[in-house]
Amino acid sequence: MPRNTERSREIFERAVGYLPGGVNSPVRSFRGVGGDPIVVASGAGSKLRDVDGNEYTDYCGSWGPLILGHAAPDVVSAVQEAASRGLTFGVATEGEATLARLVCEAMPSMQLVRFVNSGTEATMSAIRVARGFTGRSKIVKFDGCYHGHSDGLLVQAGSGVATLSLPDSAGVPESYAAETLLAPYNDLDALTEVFEHYGSEIAAVIVEPVAANMGVVPPLEGFLEGVRTLCDDNGSLLIFDEVITGFRVGLGGFQGAAGITPDLTCLGKVVGGGMPVGAYGGRADVMQLIAPLGPVYQAGTLSGNPLTVAAGIATLTALQRPGFYEELDRKTTALLDGITNVGMRLEVDLVLNSVASLFTVFFGTIAPVDYTTARTADAQRYARFFHALLDRGVYFPPSQFEACFVSAAHTDADIAQTLGAIEESLVESR
User: Are residues 291 and 326 in the same domain?
Assistant: First the structure.
């Protein structure tokens, strides 16, 4: 059932003449799955509509922030009202304090918070604070975890980097990369060995508590607790990158569900309700090093801008409604159980990794626990599956190494339609 894609193709070909690869973020180019990217015209609820008039049930959700769905009425109204008063001031506003209170109340580990404009800014700034607090220079990250595109973190970064088969990025000086130490995700023995060699030099360990940029890979039992202990024993800070999981798995993020307290937390995505945003925060004694209170400098004219703040307040207020996460979990479970049953009935080798409303379909027999096992999945089969779904009006991420997201806007009818499309697509993509 071919789609009309003439106008999308025309716009993309025009964009290639002005934008590198025709896009402003690599994964949008569809290089991971082949074919021409769609060009979106609008979104509403669970649906995307492209410039050719094709409609898709969307499980990408702008890579996670649209937990309420596209153009959620309360969020749109809040942004419109804020815009009518001015787009940016570069001066403090009441909304900043309100959103900060909502974030800190939801995540008690964040005694103080600083808003920025992206997840990359948040992780970059949190690492700077950790180095300033400890007086140390080295950072530990895990293979396949992505923490934004700042120089020191583009080492085995997963996600778009994995999709393009690049182990790191050109343009990153070796001296930057040398300050970043690597360990396999979910491997406490390897991390222990890193600390045995470099413990007195390590400022912080940064980790996605649920890896979501090599596909969804949950932590093994005891892994995060072990990371916390190693940091404590060596005087290093623990940074949770909850840019994806924060407010996705619950109001308290994954740390709240797991009962683990990091020293610093990085947020993004949902906090802005779809507007550009990032945030980092944590222990007061650490955060008080940030200017104007201390010597660690970080600033941003558009940080905490009134439009983003308004969207964030409206979103976090909606997430506090009784039963919100229970209903989201119910829908997700229905979808995942359905995919599992279809796969078993068709005798397809597939594995579902999931946490709360995040999930990834891996083609293969191994449930990934780290970057190495994630890369054993059949990415070519995923690409065929992706395009078969697209032709049936379902939009999954255009990369094997990304997460799918269920939103509050998805209906039971959407899930039923999606399961029908998945069954047909699994047959077609054999």
Answer: no
Q: Say what the pLDDT of residue 151 is.
A: 66
Over residues 273-280, mean pLDDT:
95
Whether pLDDT at 199 is above 50: yes
**Upper half-sphere CA count for residue 283 (Cβ side, 13 Å):** 14
Q: Is residue 59 part of a domain?
A: yes
Looking at the fold, whether 312 and 328 belong to one and the same domain comes out as no
CB contact set of 264 (below 8 Å; sequence gap of 6+): 126, 129, 130, 204, 237, 238, 239, 240, 280, 281, 282, 283, 286, 287
**What would the two tokens of residue 181 be?**
């130490």
Q: Indicate whether 311 and 367 sit together in one domain.
A: no
Q: Do residues 202 and 138 touch, judged by C-beta distance below 8 A? A: yes
For residue 166, what pLDDT is reported? 37
In a domain, 68, yes or no: no
d(CA 280, CA 298): 11
Indicate which residue of 146, 185, 325, 395 is catalytic.
Answer: 146
Listed in sequence order, the residues at least 6 apart from 239 whose beta carbon sits closer than 8 Å to its beta carbon are 123, 126, 127, 130, 204, 205, 206, 207, 262, 263, 264, 265, 266
Asked if residue 134 belongs to a domain, the reply is yes
**pTM of the predicted model as reported, rounded to 2 decimal places:** 0.94
Annotated catalytic residue within 141, 269, 280, 371: 269
Helix, coil or strand: residue 354: strand
Q: Is 269 a catalytic residue?
A: yes
**398: in domain:** yes
Is residue 167's pLDDT more than 60? no
As a whole number, mean pLDDT of residues 171-185 equals: 81
Note if 241 is an active site residue. yes
- Going from the C-alpha of 358 to that of each of 68, 266, 381, 406, the distances in angstroms are 14, 18, 21, 7
Would the pLDDT of 224 be above 60? yes
Distance CA 408, CA 72 (A): 10
For residue 160, pLDDT over 60 is answered with: no
Range of the domain at 59: 6-63+322-428
Catalytic hit among 241, 263, 370, 414: 241
Q: Give catalytic status of residue 391 as yes or no.
A: no
